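Notes continue from the previous slide.

Worked example: a multi-chain complex. Inputs as given:
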Amino acid sequence: MKNLSISRLAFAAPVFAWLLLPSGVAAQQSKPWEKIPVPPLHEFKPQQPKRVALKNGIVLFLQEDHELPFVSGSVLIPGGSRDEAAAKAGLVDLYGQSWRTSGTAKMTGDAMDDFLEAKAAHIETGGDEDSTAVSWDSLKADTDQVYALAMDLLFHPKFSPEKLQLAQQQTATGIVRRNDDEGEIASREAAKLVYGADSPYAREPELATIGAVSVADLQAWHEKTIGGKLIVSMIGDFDSTSMEAKLRSTFEALPTAKPPAPRHETFNGPKPGIYFINKEDVNQSNIQIVGLGVDRHNPDVPSLAVMNDVLGGGFASRLFQKVRTELGLAYAVGGGLSFAWDHPAPFRVVAMTKSESTVDASKAALAEIQGLSTKPFTEVELKRAKDNLLNSFLFRYDTKGKVLAERVRLEFYGYPADYLETYKLALEKVTIADLNSVVKKYVHPEKMAVLVVGNGPEIKPGLDELKMGPVQTVDITIPQPGAPTGAQKPGPAEKQ
Amino acid sequence: MQSKLSHRLWTLTMAVLAVTLSLPVAMAQDVKSFEQRITTKVLPNGLTLIICERPEAPVFSYSTFVDAGDVNDPSGQSGLAHMFEHLAFKGTSEIGTTDYAAEKVALAKVEAANNAYEAENLKAIGRDPKKVAELKKALQDAETEAHQYVIPNQFTEVADRNGAHDLNASTGLDQTMYFWSMPENRLELWAWLESSRLSDVVPREFYKERDVVLEERRMRTDSNPIGRLFEQFLATAYVAHNYGRSGVGWPSEVSQVSATEAMAFHKKYYTGSNIVVSVVGDVKASEAIPLLEKYFSKIPAGPKPEEMTTVEPKQFAEKSVVIKDRSQPIYIEGYHRASYRDPDDAVYDAISDILSNGRVSRLYRTLVRDQQIAAVAEGVSPYPGDKYPSLFVFFAAPVPGHTSAEIATSIHKEIDKLKTTDVTDAELAMYKTRARADLLRGLANNQGLANALAQYQTRYGDWRELFGQLDRVDKVTKADIRRVANQVFVASNRTTGQLDTEAPAASAKKDGSAQ
């Protein structure tokens, strides 16, 4: 079934439309929904997983869940694509793909596929920006066999040249196709504007960099990271005591986990201005307004979350009300200032609009960002945003799986286990003064960049109407291996 | 029909069975215990309520399943069901308005102004541009007049403020679904909101919302190479049935549908007998049923709309569509197959599973792993819908340096293998094991379960078929697979769709001219 629906790409907020109503409008006569009783919520203490810190630094989490006869687990390993060499960008992705498909000395990846799928079980590996992982799941009856196999893969992978080559080919396909989809171009290039094209948080694997990765590189990466502070988590239909004993027997005897190398990173944000990428097979522009956000350690995060809800958090947000509902200029519009766990995430507002209304939609979205400092927040707005955030807060821990995932995340990034509770309390206390203060501190339209991906000839009026300086064209030509840097040799992979 | 089995007993049963019994038997037992947690009630207006008690956390999810989608759009009004879905977020006579009595009058003027404008604007002969401009201005004035009574997005605002999570809706060709999750203490508030928007629809901000839907079309179809390909592919594969028509709507049609047409669609299809509402989570059926009955009874009764009678005629010649585009190549081919009610429905699922499910699948192993000609290769069904006879579709993306022609050859070899040689015992057993496990895994998700219960209740008249389908899965034989493959995968029943890369015209300015 296809999903032709109202998008929640938007994130932001509300009440502003009230101010847009012509003055003198009669107040709503009755609000029947306010007469409907809302009884106290059933008492609920989310079940926390058992945490076991081993002497070597490895941490285990055990979360029993007996509803269904399944058991699943994961081992999270610090170190990810931001730590790979620029000349081998893509290494961690290739590692994540070919680790599992290669298999072990005891069982090849192909044999593992047959063995597991016959049991409707899975073992998978993957690489991310800051970590890699082995995860598995099976019916309860197969717990021991699947666990043993997952551990064999975790500790004794045998990387195969054939599987690396297969992964390289898959990744190459992604690279040559990366300019086909407008939205993909827009979010990728917007990240480059925020972090810099060469930043580990934005750079892209290229045909040359993935081609430079060898089996020895995969093995070296594995040896380098497997000794880190592993976080092992299990959830499902098991008994914690015996499961803990099983995990201990695997992980307790390992050497002391190596601490991660300290990170020295600077984040300057985008070079302000207007940027353009031409794509003549579309009739809609993808507009990205970007700046630099913060990381979650920042004590202003609760206030920023409320600000985000007002700006772009949902149907009632200022952006949605203005750009979509009032102007009818976009289906997808929204955004805000994001926070990553250990580095600044971008500020990003996105709108997609037909070519001809590119300038109008950009102006309308920019005005709402600017409006954060010029259109005063109201008590109604504040209350609405807090209601939105607090009344749905429950959905952060309404399953045992979510509770476990949150605890693993907090452990991985070094946050206290009660982070969610303190965060919720802080949200409750946010005031209008707090909102004004964070807008002043973090929302700087003059430091933002606007990126438009769209059909140049159709964009009329042109982007110079935005008065953001000369329109800077971004070259997204896909470099061909062997071609000198910057060369723009037309090839089969080149797409504009 | 009230469910009394405690949750504890349910989990205990599950745990014990999983250890001591083989999976097929365990499933049968599961169904029994599951049945006791589910209560249904058909209201006097024909609407079916389904409640499933799953008190894991103090939340619930719901799904409203309307047995009407874009396949039901009247001729010339493609995209109407989806347009209506957007209208269902605009509020009612009580929510989203400052003064409904006055707004109603103003909206009637909008409609009259729109009719006058459209009549002039669409004149084939004697269209007067000056008059068109005047009428357009009059329409805009009428909209401004009506807008003064609107409290924009108040319906969703109330839902959001009360903790609605993953609030959304989707319009398919076959059905329209509305859904979200909420804290359990908002059950009555939800019942008021949902029953109100289903029964008391106001054509508020319709023409502005139509612009929004046109942006949605640009995003999903016009500006997306794969979206463009699939739209043309379906239009080629079907000659009579509405599955061949753009679901989001052809631009000239969806840009001209009117509020009057949307309201007529609502009147015909949003009747009690055409709607199933399911709720899964921390709710007690004994309390919820009377509460929900109170609210959902206000949905008008009215007969079950007549089923569409158009049947796609048998295809007798291979068809193809080729798009020259600036994107990388994509290859698809589709074969007409029977509907979900056909006794062979599970056989199609078996074929799809064996061909496409994971790294053990035949298409992965052949086209991706061994021949290394495709980055992805799958054969799935039903597409584009499940209610009426649809297509079994193969989809593949060639890796650089390889072509759609090579892909087609390899897919046809795999198809021939299915026709001439039995699948292995292991493959068939794997399909059956995975089908069961996947069903079981799905039970742990309130929203997924609510959607599935409502869908099976609608499609089979009984949600128990969600579990009953496993009987059909069990009965699939190797001979069935060969028989169906021989019957369906023949050239005269095939439509291919292909996106071929075309270099940009040499004259195109490299940086465009957006300045």
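Summary box: Residues 192 and 199 of chain A are 8 Å apart (CA to CA). The longest helix of chain A spans residues 358-374.
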